[in-house]
């Protein structure tokens, strides 16, 4: 078992393997996202029943909650990549970490923005220094910090190590975000969906939410694969396999990412 | 599963909350679209970088196109400084 895992781990640590095998995963996740995101969003916006307290403004949940889930999961993934980078000195882990940062930043921004717009009709204010909102804002700053740190250090190995450390240290913020609604009783409502309990909303409401969550995770993973594979091309540009890959494709086709990879 | 609104107008109005709902979804999907476009541009740029390197190698190996050499070595220097 451990031998199988070791082999798997070792293989995905190779830039060429990640580029070649990642292509199929990228396409699978792209397909899932293209099906699930429109399905979940249309379902949630047009067919889910209206909320008796909040009216139709609650429909923002179908964008807000998936974005917030992805923003936090992305950070945890980056911290895990940081541990792999520091312990095993795996180059691909550095690439994954820095490639995921702008995506996590985007989803974190979406969560904060939709939350503010939702807060206005529901709480009467765009922003309040509530524990959940503040800890999410810190997550946004962590993403910005990691990207700034990366671009400030010229040497790739040093930049990778610095970003890995920052990602690992910052992960302390994630449980604070998660439990903020339980520890401090403020404006933000507690979780609507929990793995261990029955949802606090009817099935007609949470089913489209689940579809949206799956769709946005797939979208996130597709983008991580795409960005990581791009950065692998850039970093490995002096190697023979990248040269022949690019020579084989002619004009780069962003839709059909590197068909020469299979040859 | 039934349409939760009486009419299409009611759907766009979202009760009294049309502005908030559509602002959220508009900005949210704009950010996602920008993400996708930037990732695709990054891909095109990475491929272009490799192609530029290959052209430089072809010039220095064959000694042809001496007029292009100045441009290529300048871009190669820029390229090297990025790595």
TrEMBL record, chain A:
Membrane-topology annotation of the record: Multi-pass membrane protein
Chief localization: membrane
Keywords in alphabetical order: Cell inner membrane, Cell membrane, Cytochrome c-type biogenesis, Membrane, Transmembrane, Transmembrane helix, Transport
InterPro entries the record matches: Cyt_c_assembly (IPR002541), Cyt_c_biogenesis_CcmC (IPR003557), Cyt_c_biogenesis_CcsA/CcmC (IPR045062)
Compartments it resides in: Cell inner membrane; Membrane
Domain annotation Cytochrome c assembly protein: ranges: 17-188
One Pfam match: Cytochrom_C_asm
Sequence intervals crossing the membrane: 28-48, 60-88, 95-119, 131-150, 162-181, 205-226
Known function: Required for the export of heme to the periplasm for the biogenesis of c-type cytochromes.
Family: Belongs to the CcmC/CycZ/HelC family.
Listed name of the protein: Heme exporter protein C
Organism: Allohahella marinimesophila
Gene from which this protein is expressed: ccmC
TrEMBL record, chain B:
Function of the protein: Required for the export of heme to the periplasm for the biogenesis of c-type cytochromes.
Localization (cell): Cell inner membrane
Key word Cell inner membrane present: yes
Pfam families: CcmD
Region feature Disordered, mapped onto this chain: 60-83
InterPro entries: Haem_export_protD_CcmD, Heme_exporter_D
TM stretches of this protein: 20-39
UniProt keyword annotation of Cell membrane present: yes
Entry-linked NCBIfam families: cytochro_ccmD
Family: Belongs to the CcmD/CycX/HelD family.
Protein name, UniProt field: Heme exporter protein D
Membrane topology summary: Single-pass membrane protein
Biased composition (Low complexity): 72-83
């Amino acid at each position: 078992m451990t031998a199988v895992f070791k082999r798997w781990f070792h293989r995905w640590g190779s830039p060429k393997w990640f580029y070649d095998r990642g292509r199929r995963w990228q396409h699978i996740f792209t397909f899932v996202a293209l099906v699930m995101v429109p399905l979940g969003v249309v379902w949630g916006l047009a067919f889910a029943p209206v909320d008796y307290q909040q009216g139709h403004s609650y429909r923002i949940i179908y964008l807000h909650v998936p974005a917030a889930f992805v923003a936090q999961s992305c950070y945890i993934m980056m911290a895990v990549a940081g541990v792999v980078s520091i312990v095993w000195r795996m180059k691909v882990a550095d690439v994954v970490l820095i490639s995921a940062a702008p995506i996590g930043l985007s989803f974190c921004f979406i969560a904060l923005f939709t939350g503010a717009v939702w807060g206005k009709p529901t709480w009467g204010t765009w922003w309040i220094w509530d524990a959940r909102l503040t800890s999410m804002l810190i997550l946004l700053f962590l993403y910005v910090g990691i990207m700034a740190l990366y671009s400030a250090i010229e040497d790739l190995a040093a930049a990778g190590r610095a970003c890995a450390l920052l990602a690992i240290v910052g992960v302390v913020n994630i449980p604070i975000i998660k439990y903020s609604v339980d520890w401090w009783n403020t404006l933000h409502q507690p979780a609507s969906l929990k793995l261990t309990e029955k949802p606090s909303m009817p099935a007609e409401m949470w089913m489209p939410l689940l579809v949206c969550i799956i769709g946005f995770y797939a979208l996130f993973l597709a983008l991580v694969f795409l960005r990581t594979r791009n950065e692998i091309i850039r970093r490995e540009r002096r190697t023979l396999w990248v040269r022949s890959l690019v020579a084989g494709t002619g004009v780069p086709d962003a839709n059909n990412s590197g068909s020469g990879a299979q040859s | 599963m039934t349409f939760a609104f009486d009419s299409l107008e009611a759907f766009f109005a979202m009760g009294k909350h049309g502005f908030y709902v559509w602002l959220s979804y508009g900005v949210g999907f704009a950010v996602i679209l920008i993400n996708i476009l930037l990732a695709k541009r990054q891909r095109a740029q990475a491929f272009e970088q490799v192609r530029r390197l290959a052209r430089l190698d072809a010039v220095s190996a064959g000694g042809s196109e001496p007029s292009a050499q100045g441009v290529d070595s300048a871009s190669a220097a820029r390229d090297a400084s990025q790595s």
